[in-house]
Write a structure and sequence with these properties.
Low-confidence stretches: none
Shape: globular
Radius of gyration: 17 Å
Structural class: alpha/beta
Distance between the termini: 18 Å
Mean pLDDT: 87
Largest sheet: 4 strands, parallel
Number of strands: 7
Oligomer: single chain
Helix content: 25-40%
């Protein structure tokens, strides 16, 4: 995918807003290998240190928020499959598993819980038939979000 636009700098990072698709992304787009190294070594350690501890402090708020987000489908989760892409530490899939969903997570970092597919989100080696796909705060981390959405 090629993007056209004029690069600009924000907070020390060079970005570009594509004039065709309006996607704002890092410029140049990092290679798949650069992204892999970043999520294996830096993301949770450098960008999100203490995330687990903050979640524990905010657990009730997050669980209420997730319940609100999934309220329209209510108890439909019982016996159905949910795949959370970008599962992080697995807090959301744990919560939904407790609500009756059969859950499966996908995460690029080494902090994913046991049973998750650990690998790059865009490699697609984890796709399976599920009833619901969630991908909270994921699109901005992908090299080609349109391809990801087409597949989801």
């Amino acid at each position: 995918m090629s993007h056209l636009g004029r690069p600009f700098t924000m907070n020390g990072i060079t970005l570009m807003e594509c004039t065709a698709c309006r996607w704002v992304h890092q410029y140049p787009i990092p290679s798949a290998e650069e992204i892999k190294r970043y999520y294996e070594a830096d993301f949770w350690q450098r960008e999100k240190p203490g995330a687990r501890e903050r979640f524990d402090e905010q657990r009730n708020w997050w669980q209420t928020t997730w319940d609100d987000w999934l309220w329209p489908i209510g108890s439909l989760g019982a016996g159905r499959k949910l795949m959370d892409i970008g599962a992080g530490h697995g807090f959301f899939i744990e919560h939904e598993s407790n609500r009756g969903w059969e859950t499966f997570g996908v995460e690029a970092s080494p902090y994913c819980p046991d049973g998750c597919y650990r690998g790059q989100i865009e490699d697609g080696g984890y796709w399976q038939k599920v009833d619901l796909v969630t991908a909270f705060w994921v699109l901005e981390h992908l090299r080609d979000p349109r391809a990801f959405l087409a597949r989801a």
